[in-house]
Amino acid sequence: MPNVAHGKSDLQGLHAYCDPNHRHHEGDRFGRLFPNLPPLFNDPRKLADLGKPGGVMDDGNDNTRTTTVAVGQVFFGQFVDHDVTLDVSSSLDTVNNPESIENVRSPTLDLDCVYGAGPEAMPFMFHADGVFKGVKLITGADAGTGPHAAQDLPRIGEVAVIGDFRNDENRVISQIQLAMIRFHNAMVDRAKAEHPDLAGKELYEEARRLCMWHYQWALVHDFLALICGEGVVNRVLTQGRKFYRPHVAFIPVEFSVAAYRFGHSMVPMKIQVQTGEAPVSLFGDVLGRGFESIKDPRAAVDLHELFETREGRQVERTGRMDTKLSSQLLALPTNVDPDQRSLATRNLVRGQAFLLPSGEEIARCLGRPDAEIEQISDASGLNGGTPLWFYILKEAELIGRENLDGTRLPGEGLGPVGATIVAETIIGLIELDPRSWLSNDSSWTPISRDGDGTENETVSARLDGER
């Protein structure tokens, strides 16, 4: 692999920078939000220096936390990413044309990372007999490995039998995957109780619809409200999308390659996953290094410790959203080019390989004031040519999340550019899906009601209590 990160070879496909008129093919490919903006080029050596261990993006394991964002949200964001994107063909050492890169996931928030291709195509993920044959998903209690299988994903040996292999890459996301499987099975029970005549495929589809709608609701009203801010979310829902406006859903590279990588600055390297236990390393002896079964009972994650729930626990917070990454993320173990061990450098090089415009250019396109752009650009120190991902992190650090009343919280969430890209894309993916809650019944909420109109607890809260 050419050593692009340190500038020891030319960036292939440089001629593409001469043509700013990019166009996307909607649907199963990636595309662009701003096809007419010119791409940014920075000397790859400058990008490597920016993201190197001990450089300006190294937090020195400072571990400064937000005050408002529960630590589980950054892993939930990873789960969402795996639900809508899977790029297996792009490269860091050549220019990538998003229109030619297949997105292996469907660009809809339909939980295909949980369901895979469904019970007909992937029957091994579902109950094989009984009343719920082809309806309920299996868990480790049905087909697991080792003494702690009941608290784990279903596995054949060490390989997780799930819809997206990436949802086993760390213990927290694997436990979120398990929670979603359990939630589907609880929705099967609910649908069967409410509609006794439902069975087979119809019962599966009704349970999947319930899961999707709860998931999409939480994504908008919990996750986006915390990451993008209630002010931005409310504006997109009430005034409509201004920039992500395709007829058919697609994933913009400004989202997947830059804006949605905000979580890399927020993920802590140690987290508390059980009450009364000390925080443990995300990739250590207790939680494991990913893609393996639970070996230690302390690795069974209590999600009440990671998310705000009805139990009212003291929940740990994410790291601040800023231009700093954990030192460990800048020196990842890898069997590829050692100069690409820095996750920050890889993100910066990837943005350049996808011909992304500068953060300043996109901010101007969004109508941000000149003084704000100059503030962020000057603080970035890149002479007006700031990579979009770095610009968005610096914007979050200096300006931050917009509350419903217009006030802002620096370091607690995305600033105007990042929040607009993320909120419009995710809400757009929901609105453009004819199966979604917003397309079918926008007045729906997760609150169930008795015949007299009194509110019951949400189904998700009932499931939460089963853990």
Structure description:
This protein has about 475 residues and is mostly helical. Helices cover about 35% and strands about 5% of the residues. The chain has helices at about 45-50, 70-85, 110-115, 170-195, 200-225, 230-240, 255-260, 345-355, 360-365, 370-380, 390-400, 415-430, 435-440, 460-465, and strands spanning about 30, 65-70, 155, 160, 250, 270, 280, 315-320, 400, 410. A hairpin with a 5-residue loop joins β9 (about 400) and β10. α4 crosses α5, α5 (about 200-225) packs across α6 (about 230-240) and α9 (about 360-365) runs antiparallel to α10 (about 370-380). The radius of gyration is 22 Å and the shape is globular. The termini are far apart.
Topology:
Blueprint: E1 30-31, H1 44-51, E2 65-70, H2 72-84, H3 112-115, E3 155-156, E4 159-160, H4 171-194, H5 200-227, H6 230-239, E5 251-252, H7 253-258, E6 270-271, E7 280-281, E8 317-319, H8 343-353, H9 359-365, H10 370-380, H11 388-398, E9 401-402, E10 408-409, H12 416-431, H13 437-440, H14 459-466
Parallel strand pairs: 1-5
Antiparallel strand pairs: 2-8, 3-4, 6-7, 9-10
> What is the CA–CA distance across the termini?
46 Å
Please write the string of helix (H) and strand (E) elements. Answer: EHEHHEEHHHEHEEEHHHHEEHHH
Output the number of helix runs. Answer: 14
Measured on Cα atoms, how large is the radius of gyration? 22 Å
Strand order, largest beta sheet: 1-5
Percentage of residues in DSSP E strands:
5-15%
Low-confidence segments, ≥5 residues, pLDDT <50? Answer: 1-26, 448-467
Portion of residues within helices: 25-40%
Overall form: globular
Largest sheet geometry:
2 strands, parallel
- Given helix and strand content, the structural type is mainly alpha
Rounded average pLDDT: 89
Number of strands: 10
